[in-house]
Amino acid sequence: MKNNLSIVLNVVLLIAVVVLYVLHFSGKSTSEGNNELVDSQINPENFSIAYVNSDSLLKNYDFFKDLEKQLIAKRDKLNIEYQNRAEGLQKEIVNFQSTAGNMSINQARAVEEDLRKKQQNLMMYQEQLGQQLMGEEAKMNSELYDKVSDYLRDYGLNKNLQLVLTYTKGSGVLYANDSLDITNQIIVGLNEAYGEEQNGGAIKSIADTTGTK
User: Fold this and answer.
1) Which is it for the CA torsion 71, 73, 76, 80, positive or negative?
2) Which of 17, 2, 14, 164 is nearest to 74 (CA)?
3) Is residue 1 part of a domain?
4) Domain that holds residue 45
5) Contact between residue 164 and residue 182 where contact means Cβ atoms under 8 Å apart
6) What is the pLDDT of residues 43-74, one digit of tens each?
7) Domain holding 169: CATH number?
8) Residue 83: helix, strand or coil by DSSP?
9) Measured torsion, CA atoms of residues 27, 28, 30, 32, in degrees rounded to the nearest 10
């Protein structure tokens, strides 16, 4: 069983959300009949980029905190189930060791074979629990990805952003101006939206839940 949990937003927030069709192709040229591009690329002067610090997002996003708690609770539950089975088998082994002298050779061999099968089953059970936990983690990662990416897509469209990047150690971005940092706005908006979901209310539009960049 894994002792350290990580719901990875390195997957989630490695988001390059190209929201306004960076390579938007217009119609054909009418003068020469060639397939020339007319205004095929966004004017660099109007190309807006922002970034989000994924470490700060994970630390402050309430939905992620709840997911992490759920995963830890699930891990602990599965670990207890495994420990109970392992302790039960250990008791059987100890009992056999203390009573084997009173058994015939055939009886002892039969018990040994039974214990061996139970040990193998316990190992298989441990693997199954590990796979189950990984499945839960993958499902939670997917939910996290969907929430963050959907919100960033709406945010980008509303704020006329063409690209939203993640900026954290190891992300490949060596420098980014602080003026491009929208982390706080995204955290506020995500938490407001998640709070409304928890309260059963309708999610506000992106324009209502975020400030200007």
Assistant:
1) negative
2) 2
3) no
4) 9-209
5) yes
6) 555 678 899 998 899 899 999 999 999 999 99
7) 3.30.910.20
8) helix
9) 160
